[in-house]
């Protein structure tokens, strides 16, 4: 088996030029998001773990000069996920400090058995960054390794057993609280939440912002307007979501969704039921994904500064490596509401 992987190998596998592969990794030139995603997936598949040095030098020659920061993930972010650009910036920042980024996929079997990923050796790693890691028990296992660790979003945390790690989050509570308040001010009093509030900490904070805004403005919180099934439910299946919406005691005037993915699923289901967005119901997402600008109507959402979060994540983990005894931090990065046509004439503050 070939032990050294080059950018040319990735290009040959995909039928692309090495120049195209280099541009994709460096974030330069005009390359479609689909092509960039294909290149990233193939790089991971072939074991090309370094994203910064895109010449044709073999991987093993490059990594011998760099220290390792390990990325643990249950699901590698695609181009629609806020983490895609975040990780690109993260890698660029750590590479300037002499670190390389190594990817380790955590499988469901690993979580169930509480095993570390194959080929993961804590003794060779300077720090850990975790994304799409939402099992509390497994996250505690990671923290118990005693390595400098940063979670980019995480599980809903039990206050009695906090994670011994830094946590980086997009600001969720205040933005959704503001959205809910603005809807109430515009006489939208029947507001539902769509998505598993316990899927991750950011979803929980969005749901909490929604719920507390209702209570603070003298509206009772009722799950009669909500679809809160666990994330294992088939939200992407139109038949299932149509049935869940039809099964609500009353159709809400607006759905605030846990993310853009769920909001787009909701728009499709609403249309299939013969209803219109925003005429019959307003739909609001979170993430500002590329698809939010394509779906009709265009989706009102909350923008996450992905690249800036990547730089903050890198700097925080580099600081933790240098100062492992300093108090752990939970950092929220400011987000911004993006008004589009799925929320009708309601105007939101975009501060």
TrEMBL record:
Keyword Membrane among UniProt keywords: no
Q: Which CDD domains match?
A: HTH_LacI
Q: Which residues form the HTH lacI-type domain?
A: 5-49
Signal sequence segment: none
Query: Listed GO molecular functions?
Result: DNA-binding transcription factor activity; transcription cis-regulatory region binding
Gene3D superfamilies in the record: 3.40.50.2300, lambda repressor-like DNA-binding domains (1.10.260.40)
Q: Would the keyword Transcription be found if you checked this record's keyword annotation?
A: yes
Q: Which Pfam families match?
A: LacI (PF00356), Peripla_BP_3 (PF13377)
User: Per its record, how is this protein called by name?
Assistant: LacI family transcriptional regulator
Q: Which organism is it from?
A: Candidatus Galacturonatibacter soehngenii
């Amino acid at each position: 088996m070939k032990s050294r992987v080059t950018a040319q190998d990735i290009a040959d596998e995909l039928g692309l030029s090495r120049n195209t592969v280099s541009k994709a990794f460096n974030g330069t030139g005009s390359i479609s998001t689909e092509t960039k995603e294909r290149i990233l997936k193939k790089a991971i598949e072939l074991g090309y773990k370094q994203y910064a040095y895109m010449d044709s030098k073999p991987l093993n020659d490059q990594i011998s000069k760099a220290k390792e920061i390990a990325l643990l993930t249950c699901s590698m972010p695609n181009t629609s996920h806020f983490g895609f650009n975040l990780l690109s910036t993260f890698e660029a920042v750590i590479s300037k400090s002499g670190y390389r980024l190594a990817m380790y996929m955590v499988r469901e079997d690993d979580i169930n058995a509480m095993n570390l990923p194959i080929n993961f050796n804590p003794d060779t790693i300077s720090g850990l960054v975790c994304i799409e890691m939402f099992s509390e028990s497994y996250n505690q296992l990671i923290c118990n390794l005693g390595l400098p660790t940063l979670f980019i979003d995480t599980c809903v945390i039990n206050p009695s057993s906090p994670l011994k790690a830094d946590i980086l989050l997009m600001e969720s509570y205040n933005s959704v609280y503001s959205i809910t308040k603005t809807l109430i001010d515009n006489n939208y009093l029947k507001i539902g939440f769509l998505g598993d509030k316990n899927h991750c900490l950011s979803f929980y904070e969005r749901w909490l912002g929604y719920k507390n805004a209702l209570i603070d403005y003298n509206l009772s919180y009722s799950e009669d307007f909500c679809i809160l099934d666990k994330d294992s439910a088939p939200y992407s299946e139109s038949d299932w979501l149509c049935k869940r919406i039809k099964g609500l005691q009353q159709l809400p005037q607006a759905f605030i969704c846990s993310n853009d993915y769920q909001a787009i699923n909701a728009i499709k289901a609403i249309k299939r039921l013969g209803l219109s967005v925003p005429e019959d119901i307003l739909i609001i997402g979170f993430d500002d994904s590329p698809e939010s600008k394509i779906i009709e109507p265009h989706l009102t959402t909350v923008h996450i500064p992905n690249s800036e979060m990547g730089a903050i994540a890198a700097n925080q983990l580099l600081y933790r490596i240098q100062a492992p005894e300093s108090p752990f931090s939970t950092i929220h990065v400011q987000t911004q509401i993006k008004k589009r046509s799925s929320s009708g004439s309601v105007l939101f503050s975009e501060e």
